[in-house]
Amino acid sequence: MPENPSEGWRFPEPTHNHRQCVQSALERAESLCRARGCRLTEQRRRVLALIWQSHRPVGAYALLDGLRESGHNAAPPTVYRALEFLLEQGLIHRVESLNAYVGCPQPEEHHHAQFLVCRACETALELDARAIDEAVADCAAHCGFKVERQTVEVRGLCPRCQRKTHHG
Amino acid sequence: MPENPSEGWRFPEPTHNHRQCVQSALERAESLCRARGCRLTEQRRRVLALIWQSHRPVGAYALLDGLRESGHNAAPPTVYRALEFLLEQGLIHRVESLNAYVGCPQPEEHHHAQFLVCRACETALELDARAIDEAVADCAAHCGFKVERQTVEVRGLCPRCQRKTHHG
DNA sequence: CTCGGTTGTGTTATAAAGTAACATTTCCGG
DNA sequence: CCGGAAATGTTACTTTATAACACAACCGAG
Question: What's the whole-model pTM score?
Fold first, then answer.
């Protein structure tokens, strides 16, 4: 958890250079797997690239369609095995409340992530907020509960979509 | 969110009077629906009672089996419609990470709930921790995000199951 | 009470998400 | 270039959830 509370998480602007998001994610995945001695195979890379096509969580069957459209025949287990690998390596997260998967911008260190998910544009912003993490840890400790995994998913409206819907 | 941070949430003891949990939950549901002018029908009451048979989140199809065992024929929509109603009224919560449903001990006021879920005994303890709520709200506000729903689910080991597995 | 609309339920079929089991292929070190 | 481990292909299936439409129960207005 390298972040500090003053870090400024921001929803990605529609104008941002997304091509670079994808490229950077793939490069980091590449070097991370090399360092760990595990194999980022073609299928796995394809699935990761498909996930990074947007900042929206993507369902497994949408990924399946994506593979098929690009001529790579596949069945559900293909996708789920790739997802399993990517999850294990921390390259993606699963958004439980959507049964969907999203790229992790910080794959080098395993962490508890939290998500702000816009119900309008469906963009998911990953936070790694120490404050939330600690609040959860405190409550758990108070109950004598040993934390293994956290799921924190917040649904609502991102700044941009608030402006749109309020026309303000 | 009536709780204060010093409130002592506790995992239910195996010896606790569970019959009373159920009875109290049903009575509160009854009076709450009467007050709100909505109908706690037989099917809805049955589903609520089945959910309260334990402190573990229960899947929709387990509830379906429960209905059938007690001679009340039912198909999936029956259960899902009852669940929808109970969720709307705040009488139960959905645990996203388990696709399962659990009774709410505080149905009178709508709230963001958080759950500690034991991976061994599957008991779910509902917290209504202002500290977590505020940490999330702060982060969201910092990003200009308008919160509508929170999902906070913590997986791990409850005190009792820690003692068992460590044989300590 | 009784008509008629709203609300709730029954029923069938199907969509969406995920996994089990086993055959086949690819990779890579000896 | 051989052999075992890792990855992929393939088929079938389970679990979770919803759509669509028919029917029945409830309840207030007349």
Answer: 0.93
